[in-house]
Amino acid sequence: MHQEAHKTRWLVLHGPLIFPARLAVILKDIVPVASSTVQVHDAFLSFDVPGVPFLEPAHANVLVKGFNDDGEWSSKTDGEKGLDREGEAYKRWVWARCSPGVDFAGSLPRELEGVAYELAEDDVETVVSRALKFLPSSVPTVLVPVRASRFELGDVTRSLGEVSADIIVAQPETPTAGLQPSRDYHMLILRGAFLNVLSQPYLAQLTILRPMDLSPPAKARTARLYRLLLVPSFLLFYLPSRILGPVWAQLGALLFGRGAPALRALERLSRGTAGSGYWNDLAK
């Protein structure tokens, strides 16, 4: 008599939640059935959750088409809204919430990327509750169903199939456009995306985001140093992706993918913990 298979669900984590130290807290004793880098369809990384002014001005969130993207761009009749999502007004509205400090480029930002974990049904609530500790406690959240494409490390063009997943979406009382995260928060997102080997074009998009300068004039030297630290990322990811497009995504995946195991091992050593914390190497 065969034992009934345990039910599982996919949960997508992204942005600051996939920074290795945070993932170690979120997953802790949880062993995912499988995991994969993913691109979430019709969803964008946004910064529309207000934080504490001059300390942490904005928190990352997810903008999901058809769920929390109603705004001044939309028409009065539901029948026209679908058409409006192809227009410039909608693109500008999304851009203002997803690309802090960057001039409108005439298109939508790249779709959200992150890491999806296949979890036992009983573990989903535990993981979500731990992830919520890194979000403002006063802001309500909800799990939203999405479609996500799994892909090989660093290259969204090499698909591993689609999955139905849930993603945590914050619902602030007043979602705000034009918010810029702090430098530390920005670097948290950049490092998480880099170490989890998200796609080169997505890394390029994250690289050009402009965090809010919270430093007083006396710390101008630190500000210049921060910008210098982003130069290699700009040269390696943004410029090549703009010039070469998908070709660079494939080349970057080939070059960087081979060094990913060593990079993850180095990260484990620096944290002094066993297991990658952000990639389930045993689940193939």
From TrEMBL:
Keyword vocabulary terms for this entry: Membrane, Transmembrane, Transmembrane helix
Entry keyword annotation includes Membrane: yes
Record-annotated membrane-spanning stretches: 225-241
UniProt name for this protein: Uncharacterized protein
